[in-house]
Each structure stands twice: as C-alpha cells, then as structure tokens.
Amino acid sequence: MSVSTVVAIGAIRHTLFVELDARVKNSMYQELEEFKRLHSEHRLIEGDTLAENVATLFDVFLSRNVPEDDEFYITILDGRFYDASSRALPKLLQPDGQLVKQLEKITLQEFRQNATPEGEIVYLTYPIYFGERFKGVFVVVHITTGEREEVQDMLVAITNIMLWVLVIASVIAWLTAGRILKPLQSLTKAARSISESDLTQRIVIKGNGEVMELANTFNDMMERLERAFTNQRQFTNDIGHELRTPITIIRGHLELMGDDPQEQREAIALVIDELDRMASLVNDLILLAKSEQPAFLRLESISLNLLMSELYAKSQAIAPRQWQLNAISDGQIYGDRYRITQAVMNLVLNATLHTHPSDRIILGAAITNTEVQIWVEDTGEGISLEDQPHIFKRFSRGNHHQIRGADGSGLGLAIAQSIVHAHGGSIRLQSNLGTGSTFTVVLPK
Q1: Residue 282 burial (CB count, 10 A)
Q2: Separation of CA 392 from chain center
Q3: Distance between CA atoms of 204 and 194, rounded to whole angstroms?
Q4: C-alpha–C-alpha distance, residues 114 and 111, integer Å
Q5: In this structure, what is the dihedral angle of CA atoms 285, 289, 291, 295, given to the nearest 10 degrees?
Q6: What pLDDT digit, counting tens, does each position of 323-358 carry?
Q7: How do strand 322-326 and strand 360-367 relate by DSSP bridges?
Q8: 346 within 8 A of 280, measured Cβ to Cβ
Q9: What is the mean pLDDT of the chain?
Q10: Which of 102, 121, 169, 397 has the most CB atoms within 10 Å of its CB?
C-alpha cells in the first residue's frame, strides 16, 4: 500500500504538470493564431498604409486582445523592444532585461521553456516579414511560476489526504487481516500441540472463504491421521493379544516335549497347527490394513447373475446345509470381483458357524435404481440385540455366544465390512435370537 501511494503521488504530479504545460501551450498557440489572422487581414488591404506598417499592426492587436493571467504579449520592431500588453511588466520582462535582449535577436518561429532565477517562463515567437524584409517579432510569453506553485500546493494537499488514507486503510487492513488469519494461528497452535498420543486437536470453523477451506482441509487431514494412528494402535494391540496365546502354547509344548517319538509327533503337529493359525491371523490383519489403501480394489464390470451362481456353487461346498438361491437380478455391477466374493463368502462362512445341517441358508441379490443388494439369510440361532453393534469389530466376543469369523479368528465379519466400505457401501443386519439372521451387502450402483 505504501509503494502504491508513492507511485500514485508521482503519477498525479506528472499528470498535473503535463496538463499544465499542455494548457499553457494551447493558450499561447491560440493567441498566435489570432495574431496571424489579423496579420493576414492587413495584407489583403492593398494600398492601405497599414499594409506595411508593422507598428500599427502591433498597436491594433494589443488594443483588441487581453491576455490571460500570467500571460504577456511582447512586440519587437526592427530589432528593438516596441510595446507590450501591460505597462506593469514583471521584472523578468522589462525592456532592459536579459530575456527581452534575447528576444530582440530572434528571427525564426520557436517555442521554448526557460528556467530563470525570477521564475519559469514559456515563450512563443512569430517573425514578421513583408516580402523578404524582416520587420519584427510577435512574442507570447507565459510565466508559469504561479501556476506551478498552485500545482505544488495541490500536490501537498493530495499527499496529505493519501497519507491519511494510507494510515486508516493500514489500520483497517491490519485488523481485518488479523481476523481473517486467526484460523491460521489456530492451525499453527493445533499443529504444534499434535503428538502421537494426542491427535484430537481441531480448528473451530466459523464463516467461509479460502482460509476456512484450509481449516476444513486441516481438520479432515487430522481425522484421517487419527483414524490411521487408531488403526495402527489397534492393529498392534490385536496382534499382541491374539498371538500371545499361540506363542505361549508353542513354547510350553516345546519346553515340555520329551524323547518319546509319539509325544514328539503330537507336539510337532500341535505346533504346526498353531503356526498355521498364526499365519492365517496375520494374513487377515494385513488384509484389514490394506483395505484402507487406494490401490486395494481392482474395479471391473461384473455380471450379477454369473457372480451369484459362482457364490452359490462355492457355498454348497463349505458345509451340509439347506442351501437356496433366489431373487437373482440380471444386470451389471461395478466392483472388484475377488474382494466382493471374499466378503460374501465370509458372511456365508459365518452363517455356517451359527446354523445346523437342518437349517436353511439363502443367497439372493437385487438391483434398484440406486444400489445393489446381495444378502445371506439363515435360520440359525440368531444374534442378540446387545451383541449386534459389536459383531463387526475385530476379535469381538458377544455375551450370548462367541462371535467369531469362519476361520475362528474373529476377523471374518470385520474383513467383510472393510471390503464393502472400500466399495463405498455398507452391510445391514437383521437378526433375532432363535429365528436367524440376514446380512445384506449394499453397494452403490
């Protein structure tokens, strides 16, 4: 703002002086044109004694024309000062002055600006010839000192006004900027207070604008970081909790294993079984971690009819149940075939754990205007209302039954939910104890 003020004052000063010079020049040339017309009129009068009487020409013009303020007419006849438009000439234009002596020597038309100790002057000369005889010079002189002083006074006033405007605008800008940038200060404070143990800091958002958008972006970033750290902490806790038991079992059997070959074979078989369970558990946890990454899915167009036929065929091979496939919709869905199959099969495996061979498990699918639904319905033992909010959590245990995945790791339903969430969908549950459960995978169309 200060630089703009300085530039503006310089531009205003330049413009005012340019306009002053242009106005003075135009006024002087206008006076010269009037003198030229009078000169031409006298030339056209043949035989008149005025035709070659330059002194009379000067007298007529001086008597008919009144110059503007600070403007003077000087007439030179035969190389000597003849007369002027004013009897009270300033010191600068006195007949014996240096400027007049300089004008008496001019024989050509010229426009010139001079800076003298007495002030700034501008003069325009017009030589007068009769035939080839040089008779005199008509001079329009303008003293611009007073007008330049007026411009300077105007510039001082303008400068004072602009400086006050600068001060007031700076104060307003300072207050406004402080108000606008307050969210940035909050952001800085929040960023400094963030640590691995405290990711709850958020910026209070009020109003709108780019700074508010930045604050929103920061809060969204903190949400993602908090989820990532929570998942990492949960991942670490889950691994530590679930691997502690098989490691203890393996260690105990190895320490107590004797020299008997049969005992060694039994111990080795148990250790291998526990190691297989640990490997399966680690693979499931890695899958859950990968489900939040952008490259987790490989999307393609899938025939829903063909997908359901494959799911039904795979389900029948899991366990002897009363399997049914109904309500198949013919259409295309967009998703990862392998991951969708994995999610639905986890629901199927979970259903087999809570049903008996005489129970019925039904697979179905439907397409609406906005979504795709794939459900797994069973007539098994069902899930209590107090357990339903927790069954999709990792290693969840219910009060009425142990709620575990199909592989016994307690991760099957959590994996299914993560896969569906990665597709932008959800899993709906309807269940009552003793009547069975229905898990519905809802995917965007």
Answers
A1: 14
A2: 40
A3: 16
A4: 10
A5: -130
A6: 999 877 788 899 999 999 999 999 999 999 889 999
A7: parallel
A8: no
A9: 83
A10: 121
C-alpha closest to that of 394 among 237, 280, 275, 277: 237
Query: What pLDDT, in 10s, does the model give residues 243-284?
Result: 776 788 788 878 877 778 887 888 888 888 778 877 877 777
Positive or negative: CA dihedral 182, 184, 185, 190: positive
Structure tokens at 141: 């002189």
Phi-psi region of 365 (alpha: psi -120 to 50; beta: other; left: phi over 0): beta
Instruction: Tell me how far apart the alpha carbons of residues 268 and 257 are, in angstroms, rounded to a whole number.
Output: 9
Under 8 Å between Cβ of 71 and 25: no
Question: What are the structure tokens assigned to 21, written together?
Answer: 């010079």
> Measured between alpha carbons, how far apart are the two ends of the chain, in Å?
55
Q: CA angle, 200 as apex, 196 and 206 as ends, to 5°? A: 140
61, 140 Cβ separation under 8 angstroms: no
Cβ atoms of residues 138 and 85 within 8 Å: no
* DSSP of 128-151: EEETTEEEEEEEEEEE-HHHHHHH
